[in-house]
Amino acid sequence: MNIGIVINTITFEARELINTAAKYFPDVKIELFKNDDFKFDITDDNGFKTDVDVFLQRSISMTRAVYTSFILEGYGYRVVSSHDTLSITEDKLKMTSHLKRHHVPTPRTMIAFTKETAMDAIHDLEYPVIIKPVSGSWGRLVAMLENDRAATAVLEDREELGTVYHKIYYLQDFVHKPGRSVDQYIDGDTVGRDIRAFVIGDEVASAMYRYEVPNDFRSNVTLGGRAEAYHITPELENIALKAARAVKGEIVGVDLMESDKGLVVVEVNGSPQFQGIMKSTGINIPKRILEYIIRTTKR
After folding, report:
1. Which fold has domain 108-174?
2. How far from 103 is each of 98, 100, 106, 204, 235, CA to CA, in Å?
3. 22, 90, 111, 256: most buried, per Cβ within 10 A?
4. Which pLDDT tens digit goes with each residue over 47-101?
5. Is 162 exposed, middle or buried (0-12, 13-18, 19+ CB in 10 A)?
6. DSSP of 247-290, one letter per residue?
């Protein structure tokens, strides 16, 4: 079997997939496709030819990931993650809507298109409120609004300095993490956490707690959040798999929080990194990915 990996640059994940294929799957050939080098004639049905059986989408640039998956699928290739999955998960507004339609528990979320209506929505939600860009990853430009003064400053910044997408105000209820009170986010004397579940096909391959970055409310491992293994419960498995199906996902990361009403899904990542979850759980994620791809791909 020939597997193509679409990349911007060689990441930890790409290296691990290559090394794992060489170690465990001698009949599998891995070929890297750097999207800088792509040149597609999208008006020609035969404009791109390769002997690859399936592509793994590992582009860091989500814009390039969405478009290259779309183009490769147009030529008849299977791509994981698919264009459908990526186009949903890269847009938080679309993602939350899909989760809601599939009855996946999520925090209350409101959308506004001006700073005036955004402020009204913030008051409807009540402080503290989380504001996020509709597109973005690694916790960038995510902020916690605790009062009108902070909210006004953030909204004005996005109104004056942001792109058109920053003026789509995605506002979400603050979820009180275990061991935390609102005041402690200021005092910083307790470390809150959330959960990342890694879904491959129809199973949750592994899961981890992610503890907050010091002096921050975010817990992304890429920002310095500490990770440790999480024992997968039936509740988590059910909700994570339902979230994956909601976004048509085959290999996705599902971010959850422990609320007073049970687990809620905050986001689904259509192209999840796995360095942190491998180190914290000891699960061989690239081997599980390749096993799944081999099992589900027709040659």
Report:
1. Dna Ligase; domain 1 (3.30.1490)
2. 9, 5, 9, 19, 14
3. 256
4. 899 999 999 999 999 999 999 999 999 999 999 999 999 999 999 999 999 999 9
5. middle
6. TT-SEEEEEEEEETTEEEEEEEESS---HHHHHHH---HHHHHH
Is the CA virtual torsion 160, 166, 170, 175 positive or negative? negative
Task: Give the count of alpha carbons within 13 A of 126, CB side only.
Answer: 2
How many whole angstroms separate alpha carbon 299 and alpha carbon 250? Answer: 18
**Which residue type is seen at 44?**
D
Alpha carbons 254 and 251: distance in angstroms, whole number: 10
3-state DSSP call for residue 130?
A: strand
Q: What is the mean pLDDT of residues 43-49?
A: 92
Tell me if 72 sits within 8 A of 5, measured CB to CB: no
Q: How confident is the model at residue 261 (pLDDT cuts 50, 70, 90)?
A: confident
pLDDT for 191: 60
Cα separations in angstroms, 30 against 14, 98, 274 = 10, 33, 19
d(CA 124, CA 126): 6
* Residue carrying the six token digits 């920002």: 223
Using the structure block, give the residue that is written with the tokens 């290296």. 15
Domain locations in the chain as residue ranges:
2-82+288-296, 108-174
pLDDT at 215: 55
Share of the chain above pLDDT 90, in %: 78
pLDDT at 209 over 70: yes
Per CATH, the number for 2-82+288-296 is 3.40.50.20
Give the helix/strand (H/E) hosting 159.
helix 148-161
Which of the residue ranges 16-30, 99-113, 146-160, 165-179 would you say has the lowest mean pLDDT? 165-179
Q: Are strands 54-57 and 2-7 parallel, antiparallel or unpaired?
A: parallel
